[in-house]
Amino acid sequence: MFRFIVRRLLQMVLAFFGTTLIVYALMFAGQGDPIQALAGERPVTAAQRAYLTEKYHLDATGVGGFFYRYFDYISNLLRGDLGESLTGRSIGDILAAAWPVTIRLALIAIAVAVVFGVTAGVLAGIRRASIFDNATLLLTLLVLGIPTIVLAPLAQYFLGVRWQLFPPTAGADPDFFALLLPGIVLGSLSLATALRLTRTSVAENLRADYVRTARSKGLPNRRVVSVHVLRNSLIPVITFLGVEVGNLMSGAIITEGVFNIPGVGFNLFRGIRTEDGPLVVGIVSVLVVVYLVSNLVVDILYAVLDPRIRYE
Amino acid sequence: MSDFETVAASENQAARRGLSGEPGTPNQVGKPGKPRSLARDAWRDLRRKPIFWISLVLVLLVTAMAAVPGLFTSNDPADCVLSRQHAAPSGGAIFGYDFQGCDTYARAVYGARASLQVGALSALFTGLIALVVGMLAGFFGGWVDAVLSRVIDIVLGIPLLLAAIVLLKRVGSDSATVRIAAVIFVLAVLGWTTAARVVRSSVITAREQDYVAAARMLGAGNGRIMWRHILPNALAPAIVVLTIALGSFIAAEATLSFLGIGLREPTISWGIEINNGRVHMRESATPLVVPSTFLALTVLAFIMLGDAIRDAFDPKLR
Where in the cell is it found (chain A) (predicted)? Predict the structure, then answer.
């Protein structure tokens, strides 16, 4: 177990440096003028140029200069100092305002996935090959196959604009109701995957020896399913949902952009649109770290929950 | 994270944790004297599935649309007149006109080309990288496998959409060819890991087979064994994974174009069309709904096709 955690940590450290190096190298080094690349297609004044050169030590050249600046960036990132966006706002402040909204949205999405996905998955797993099972399989295939850039605008149009069941956009300080539709859209993918995972693992566990034993002891079917099967079947689902929490936090870029929810993904969306280089790099760097850490936590959690996992 | 990323991520994670039913070794079913190959069995299975036929027809339809869009519409997608803004259907424009006064249907038809180009070429390059890496790792094992597997782990740990955003922001050119090439490059570089794992595991299975030992005894070298004996056996599962990947690459391209960092005007892409239609959805919804439907059906068709073939080839599900 200890070896596994150490291995996994080392792997994460490698991935962290690998990814940040790529992000950094692409953003600030290589071809062309880094300051112009930072500003996108806008003109850069002489004062801004001098300021940025000073700030990022751009006058140091060569490989040494590159790594000097890279470690500068890394240490700033680790200290939580993300610099300022081109509009002059501190990226740390922008993110601090955005996180609570994104977390609320992610929680709604996860709740939707758990309530509907797991329930339907258990039912489909018990009645394998029934009409209900086949219908859910087809439905989940549809959900998994339809991209968010289709699902989000269409849901917004039909449920928000045409039939007016939900508010079409969320706005500055969204309440629960305004986040409900985006949460459902965001959670639909996790719902479909959670459903399929639950179904497979329930169907598999129903054939296990301990279920036969429980049945032959004379336990009622309800108890066999809810205590014996469900407990064992939920291990992969829980880990999957753990990964999903990380994924959903790390930016529902499309959903937040479409529904105008001022979360992390929305700020990234806006940063891309307005060619705000520092904002994009800052948010992407933080999101990569969130993604890596959540993956690490889930991998370890998985190994703890399921003793059958071999640690290589 | 966006859709393709989540699909890819959950598939990856499932693969990493060994949850997914990877295509296993062919099992020898069939009566004595009348051997049936796995492919034959799979084909018998597939023929009876309506989903297989529906998705196959859709795939062929979209491919035809990409190759000869003139067959499906006689209107020019670039013929935009502002006076026809959101005009009702007329002439060949069966879905009316969009905000710029372009034929909505013609633009959706012509959008198939960029999507399929990106999807097919990304899948091709992904397949090549995956075959080389998976073959080397699976065949040689030892330290080669250890190094390559760690590389796969690291690339798998990079979130696709975020990395694509950073990589594509770097591309300043507005030339259509350059942008298409850039999107293909990004998707191939970030998307080969799942397929590589599948190839690696099927190579490891094939390596231990008797016919490989027989070939070696006949004096065949490593290269010949890999190319002539193992490759044909490792190919089928990889193709299935790549069919599904093709669908998600098309979704990825549309998502990147939707965000404004993938393809750009004047290239016609469903992602751009959806974004434009979204902005003016209150005035007219057809410019949003039509390309959305095209995109969703295409992605679904590839994913369902791959899914059906995988089910047919997986002996465990029989």
Answer: Cell membrane
